[in-house]
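User: I'm designing a mutation panel for RND type multidrug efflux system, MdtA-like membran fusion protein and want to avoid disrupting the core. Could you give me a predicted structure to guide residue selection? Please restate the sequence first so the numbering is unambiguous.

Assistant: Good idea. Sequence first, for numbering, then the predicted structure tokens:
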Amino acid sequence: MKNFLLFVFFALLVAVFGYRTVEFYSRGSMSSFFGQEVVYSAKNVSHINKSEEFLVQARIEAGANLDILSESSGKINNILIKKYEYVKKDQKLAEVNEIIGDIESDAEKVNIPDIVTDIDSAYAKKIGKKKKNKRDFKDMTRRYIISPCNGYIKDIVQENGAMLNFGITGGTKFASIACTDKLFASGSISTKNAKNIKKGMSVEIKSETAKAKSEISSISKIVGESGSVAFRVRLSSKDLENFFIDEVVDIKIIGKSEKLYSVPLSALVVDKSGDSFVWTIDKESNAKKVKVSVKHSDLDNVYVLGLKDGDLIITKGVNLVISDSKIKYEIS
């Protein structure tokens, strides 16, 4: 009578829920499940594409010692300096280099206060050594800055050979950006996030008025006076010309996109060593133990690496009796 009632119960379960009940023979350590009053439901795992994301705030800045104030014109110019020289307007950088040679260093080595001090006499001495015939500087009417952005000379408007006064602006807001090669956004992140952020990762930059895409150019460690440690993310992009200097922007750092699989919590098993695994079923109804890496979880599921599309995993279901060294499971 008891067996008859069990048979009726199974029949009703299949009729109502549309499940088909299958049996498979145990393999290996699956024998540890024998004697438990559980039925295992075999379920196709589903995947999601998950990207690691970190949100930070950053400030748009310009490279140190590279913000130039042109007092003679009364306008603020944010221009990267590569070389100073008396040259023809719109002359290509390659032609200028041929004339001047290695007179001046690259922008990263330029010391603006030193250059400001008696530029004319300094260049007169250098060029005098390079060329047989000294140039007559009194006849020169303009000075230009060669920009590394596009290889062409930028006109700073210096009439009648008057000296230009250059000075560091010290945090002045710029209404326009003439060259963005060295423009960057920087912001601090936590030590936890710093471990997951690498150079070259994609980022999305957004403010109330503009947005841009870029990538991380560097990560540096900052130790505060109190001993606190933070990490500064720095990124650069020509698209930053849409923002203002000193503007605070939101940065979304996008890590490597991974194909994670959603697994019910009841399917996850953790062994004594702390490794996580699930049981899968193959086409011949054999059980296989598969090691997985848990990335994150919610109330009902864990999201893991280590599975593949089409895998059937075993998860605990309603209480039923396992007998005759076989485990009954249902495919939904």
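For picking mutation sites, this is relevant: Helices lie at 2-17, 93-100, 112-116, 119-130, 191-194. The first strand starts at residue 20 and ends at 25.
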